[in-house]
Specification:
There is one protein chain. The protein has seven helices and 16 strands. The protein is α/β, with parallel strands linked by helices. The chain has one domain: Nitrilase/N-carbamoyl-D-aminoacid amidohydrolase. The longest helix has 13 residues, at about 65-75. It is globular. The chain starts with a strand and ends in a 12-residue tail after the last strand. Bound molecules: acetamide. Acetamide binds next to loops.
Length: about 260
Amino acid sequence: MKAAFVQTSPVFGEVQSNVDKAVSKIAKLDASLIVLPELFSTGYQFRSKKELLELAEELPSGYATRTLIEAAKATGAYIVAGLAERAGKKAYNSAVLVGPRGLIATYRKAHLFWDEKKIFTKGDTPFKVYKAGKVRVGMMICFDWLFPEAARTLALQGAQIICHPSNLVLPYCPQAMITRSLENRVFTITANRVGTEERVDGKLLKFIGTSQVTSPDGEVLARAGSKREEASAVEIDPARARKKLITPLNDIFRDRRKDLFSN
Ligand code: ACM
């Protein structure tokens, strides 16, 4: 199967054009699983919760989700994308998994980063695995990478591919995701954005790009640059993620010393 990321450069608040531009890249990729960045439809740096609630969308009726579903129907692809979700008076930093038959699942970001804590409600959806066609996928969002339990929980449930919409500003994640991949023997797809935002004086955010696909052996199968919008699709064999042996005598899940772990 072909797995892909789309690396974008959204313009803050321009939901319709951000969505249309990102979605226009999907058909050309000819991939069966495609990951888009965190908050791909709105941009990242909200000035207030009020502004966030105005730009966030209800699921599945919001513009971004509807457009993603149409693209999934037209191409047969499964798509994971990060967006601002409105649920009553709350807003979540969410990721949706959509397929040709509609919205399959929503994941709400568990580990909010920095000022996200002031405006988003922290996620209440467990780390869970879903079927995307023939493969099992899990979702986590950006800063969740720093909490290895997120990827481990997904892998223990049988995730073969971890889909990871991101808006990275710190430099560590691309290298760290190689380890998340290796220590769980899964594929990962991190879709990040590029560009800058300074909607709050003195808080310039530079997004690092370097979206990537990693393999269960810790190979970087594709990696984007840090400056431009890019999309890349790579051929992967998801069955590789079912094999947890790292030597003939070491199954990395069976070898876990749960009797010695305190949490
Ligand atoms: C992040 O979680 N957007 C860094």
